[in-house]
Amino acid sequence: MSRTQAKLDELDLAILTAMHEYQKAGILELSRRTKVARATVQSRIGRMEESGVIASYDPQIDVTAAGFDVQAFVTLEIAQGALDLVAAELDAIAGVLEAYATTGSGDVLCRIGADSHAGLQTVLLSIDRTSSVVRSHSVIVLSTVVPRRSLPLLRTLAPTHGSKAPAYRAVSAQAE
User: Fold this and answer.
1) Of 121, 116, 128, 115, whose CA–CA distance to 75 is shortest?
2) Within 10 Å of residue 121's Cβ, how many Cβ atoms?
3) Which residue has the higher pLDDT, 104 or 166?
4) For residue 169, is pLDDT > 80?
5) Considering the chain, what percentage of its residues have pLDDT values greater than 90?
6) How far is CA 143 from CA 63, 74, 115, 124, 159, in A?
7) 70 near 140, Cβ under 8 Å?
8) Which of 31, 43, 122, 150 qualifies as a FRET site for 52, CA 20 to 30 Å off?
9) Other beta carbons within 10 Å of 100
10) What is the model's pLDDT at position 162?
11) Distance between CA atoms of residues 162 and 165, nearest Å
């Protein structure tokens, strides 16, 4: 499904911020925190869901807290034209947490997790045994310096248009 790029304004960012800060909040609580009508919040969330800005309501699971405290990044060089194959092969390995096609000397960058160094070696060997991987290079994660986030980047967007919501009219007028 093809999606058009969403145009976010101050109210959208306020709703996303409230959703991030108060993850268990319902529509009514988000309405109270953003000082706009419940129907407005519900409509804005629906629009952001449809456009893909809100991609999921899955809980953020900390695999380290769950006992998988050994993580690594692995750069893979794969056989020419084997991206679809490597995607399927990596998807079948439970220790592969995420993988991205990249530019540069490697073709795919993976984040992997394990419960021990021996478990990490098992995951690395499973990756190296796949038919599409030609070479791999891994680095072990020592600690998280900046956790996964998105709001700071979203806040750099210049709002595309003013909001009609009373609490955000003054902000929109000042920006113009």
Assistant:
1) 128
2) 13
3) 104
4) no
5) 74
6) 13, 16, 15, 20, 35
7) yes
8) 31
9) 9
10) 63
11) 9
